[in-house]
Design a protein that fits this description.
Helices cover about 65% and strands about 0% of the residues. The protein is built from 11 helices and no strands. Helix 7 crosses helix 8 and helix 7 packs antiparallel against helix 11. The longest helix is centred in the C-terminal third of the chain and has 25 residues. The radius of gyration is 21 Å and the shape is globular. The termini are far apart.
């Protein structure tokens, strides 16, 4: 951040003589400095995801595949901060992102809108398959529900230890869709959650973590709810593991 000062790009462009043709290389240099300025912005570990959420919908209000998946990717470093407690979650999230991304890359124009791949599978009558993109979107959305609920617990229950924060979030979001084995495994993993204060210090970075968590929950929740609404309309929101 350059508080109280002009950005590097502004400083460079201020030196451009008026009404004179500017060398394209000079413009490129300005762009590079602008990028460097952006990369060095202060903020929390949630900042990239918050920025990405601004672009998940088209001007027509359609949920876009690549921007949505990019936001989910930007949440992976957040999950990393939980350490061993979230290994299973990270693996699940990463796998579902890859599945959906591969489908998108097979025909970017056809699958530009996130729900188009579900509609194709519904028409082919294979949407309920365990390896379907429909299944991948459902479980990716559920995992994001879990992350949102976890951060909501952090804000609303300041006296809870991190293990309780994680366990309560799991109970409210994912547990009802898991069988006994998966549920038992997750319950044990949640006990490996890091120290709450250390975690908050790590994810806070140079930004206002409380503000970003509240914004994260408020912004991401309706996006995830829209996914659920779409899937529920097709009778595909209640599939279990």
């Amino acid at each position: 951040m350059f508080s109280g000062k002009r950005s590097l790009k502004a400083n460079f462009e201020a030196k451009i003589p008026a009404k004179k043709k500017v060398n394209p290389n000079f413009r490129s240099l300005c762009s590079i400095y602008s990028l460097i300025s952006t990369l060095n912005m202060e903020g929390t570990v949630l900042a990239p995801a918050l920025e990405g959420m601004k672009h998940v919908k088209s001007e027509e209000g359609e949920m876009l595949t690549k921007p949505f998946l990019d936001v989910c990717k930007q949440i992976l470093p957040v999950i990393d901060k939980f350490g061993a407690a979230m290994v299973l979650v990270k693996t699940d999230v990463g796998g579902n992102i890859t599945r959906l991304e591969n489908k998108y890359l097979s025909s970017p124009e056809e699958f530009q809108n996130l729900y188009s791949m579900v509609q194709v599978e519904v028409a082919a009558k294979n949407a309920k398959g365990s390896s379907s993109c429909t299944n991948g979107l459902l479980w990716l959305t559920r995992a994001m529900d879990f992350i949102v609920e976890l951060f909501r617990n952090l804000m609303e229950h300041e006296d809870w230890a991190m293990s309780q924060v994680c366990t309560e979030a799991y109970t409210k979001t994912l547990k009802k869709f898991h069988g006994w084995l998966a549920s038992s495994t997750f319950t044990v993993a949640m006990k490996l959650a890091p120290d709450r204060k250390k975690f908050m210090d790590v994810v806070g970075g140079d930004g206002d973590i409380s503000y970003d968590i509240e914004k994260f929950c408020a912004t991401f929740t309706p996006i995830l709810q829209e996914n659920h609404k779409f899937l529920a309309g097709l009778g595909l929101d209640d599939m279990k593991a």
